[in-house]
Amino acid sequence: MNNDKLISVGKILNFHGIQGEAKVGFSKNQQDFFCSLKEVFVKSDNKYLALKIKRVRLNKNFAIVKFDGIDTINDLLPYKGSLLFVTEETIRENLEDDEFLIDELVGMEVFDADDTKLGFVVGVSNNGANDLLSVKTKSKKISLVPFVKAIVTDVKLKEKKIVINNLEGLLE
Q1: Per-residue DSSP letters for 46-59?
Q2: d(Cα 52, Cα 10) in Å, to the nearest integer?
Q3: With contact defined as beta carbons under 8 Å apart, do 88 and 5 qualify?
Q4: Contact call for residues 27 and 8 (beta carbons, < 8 A)
Q5: Which of 33, 75, 118, 144 could be cross-linked to 132 through a Cys-Cys bond (beta carbons 3.0 to 4.6 Å apart)?
Q6: How many alpha carbons fall within 13 Å on the CB side of residue 154?
Q7: Nearest Cα to 5, choosing from 89, 83, 82?
């Protein structure tokens, strides 16, 4: 496997039944993407092993996944609790034109609607409700900006530029 960046897309929570099927948790709203996957990688002894996906069926908030060559509970047990990864490239192939990976925002410059530079993104976090951009302003303070349409009005990937609606008190 080449050195593509790997991104976690789910976790083997447990086995399901006795045929070696895995109960897999994954990010919500990612059902279609998860069901489109043909293979995932699992970390084992500091190596990444490819697991081919035979079939996936959704069950409430998780997926029941049948991997090629894993036919009993014992085959699956070593992977219980393991994160499942795909390459960044796989995720990119599935992104819509106006979608991007949230990590790509790090390092981008932040401007207001009048094109005044306010600072740049130094990190991205999530408070459970939405993603937050950590923006370092000219005063060297770091402010958290919720990544929501009402505040972040435009992301220009090619120009490495984010336009925000600079509400009073948002940035210090």
Answers
A1: TEEEEEEEEEEEEE
A2: 15
A3: yes
A4: no
A5: 144
A6: 11
A7: 89
User: In sequence order, what are the residues at sequence separation of 6 or more whose Cβ sits closer than 8 angstroms to the Cβ of residue 32?
Assistant: none
CB 24 within 8 A of CB 8: no
Can you tell me whether residue 130 is helix, strand or coil? coil
pTM, two decimal places: 0.62
The tens-digit pLDDT sequence of the chain (172 residues) is 445 688 888 899 999 999 999 999 987 667 888 888 999 999 888 889 999 999 999 988 889 999 999 999 999 999 999 999 998 888 877 777 666 777 788 899 999 999 999 999 998 887 767 788 999 998 899 999 988 888 999 998 889 999 999 888 888 7
Which residues pair with residue 67 across a beta bridge?
53
The CATH code that applies to domain 6-94 is 2.40.30.60
The encoded tokens of residue 122 equal 């130094």
Pairwise CA distance, residues 17 & 80, whole Å: 14
Strand ordering across the sheet containing 161-164? 142-146, 131-137, 117-126, 109-112, 161-164, 152-156
SS3 158: coil
Domain ranges of the chain: 6-94, 102-164
- Residue 35 CA neighbour count, 13 Å, CB half: 11
One-letter amino acid at 11 equals: K
